[in-house]
Amino acid sequence: MIDLMGRRVAAAAVLMVAGAMTGGRTSKSEPFVVSAVVTGLDTPWDLAWGPDGMIWLSERGGRISRLNPATGARSTAGSIDVHQSGEGGLMGIAFHPDFASSPYVYAMHTYGGMFSAHNKLVRMRWNGTALSAPETLLDGLPGGGIHNGSRIVVGPDRMLYVTTGDAGNGDVAQNLQSLGGKILRLTLDGRPAPQNPFNTAVWSYGHRNGQGLVFHPSTGALYETEHGPSDNDEVNIIRRGGNYGWPDVHGFCDDDIGPERAFCRAHSVIEPLAVWTPTIAITGADFYMSDRIPGWRGSLLATSLKGETLFRFTLSPDGTTIIGREPLLATRYGRLRDVLVAPNGDVYIATSNRDGRGSPNRDDDRILRLTPKSQ
């Protein structure tokens, strides 16, 4: 178990301040301006910077689009027949690392029916004009109206990392025979990757509903954001074979919901870097490694749905502690689903006001762009 007791009080104090600010107005001293790149979307879920210099985005209803960041022109790359219900539908997307020679786009989506929903990993081939029909790589993953995950990233080791939710059944998260409530590590063909800790697809376990997944560009460390129930949203560093406690532990090993400390000792639970109670529904995450927006280099950015806020986290030099957090855009654009940092240092934000839990205005949903004020 990673012992964070020495910094828990300070972290909690910072957290309460940040939580109190999520309902307020963003500071007028923000170092950026906000503009809308495209409007009229329906629940965008994932933003990915494409090898073609376009922003690729998924919408929960099944559409995958390419967005020209310079002009705002959107074109449909393809669509998938998905089961959209509650939190289920088309979710995470990612690209093959050798896209020029293997032009595959990966996607996670829900399929089945109201009482038989599951999730699957597919890939589609891009021919320069349209995506092919999806090829199933891994299916039968637990799915439902809630807690489906599913974020996809390609790691420095050229393996696929995929978050899966518990689909409303917390017990699966501690069951190593289930792929629900886990982070999976797979080959580019969707098979369990070599050197996985349990000789299965499982890389880490004890997760409730992983919503953000990103590798640090310099250190290679894997960071995850995760929805709690009504308490303890989390930011985690993911370690090989790690147990993150759900459903027996919510957030820190502090006995706030029962005998968590004993469970943590017995099961070597890894504690989060930060928690939020009440929850903010933290979602997509990305690292900012540019100097384009002054003072942001090295920051971890994460969006939130319920909190309606973009958070900027400052990390310690070793990346294992959050030493500062700044709430931005609070309540101005509604529910925020994902954040993407462009190669030039601009930041793109996807709203999620048409997901059934927001209050959409005429222009929703939108992709917003943050650029420095000096530009």
CATH class: Mainly Beta
**Residues in helix, %:** under 10%
* Strand order across the largest sheet: 1-24-23-22
Q: What is the terminal-to-terminal distance?
A: 46 Å
- The CATH superfamily is known as TolB, C-terminal domain
Strand content: 35-45%
Structural class: mainly beta
Shape verdict:
globular
Total count of strands: 24
Ranges with pLDDT <50 over ≥5 residues?
Answer: 1-26
Mean residue pLDDT: 93
Instruction: Please give the count of helices.
Output: 2
The overall number of domains is 1
* CATH domain fold name: Neuraminidase
Order of helices and strands: HEEEEEEEEEEEEEEEEHEEEEEEEE
What value does the Rg take, in angstroms?
19 Å
**At CATH's second level, what is the architecture?**
6 Propeller
* Sheet with the most strands, sense and barrel status: 4 strands, antiparallel
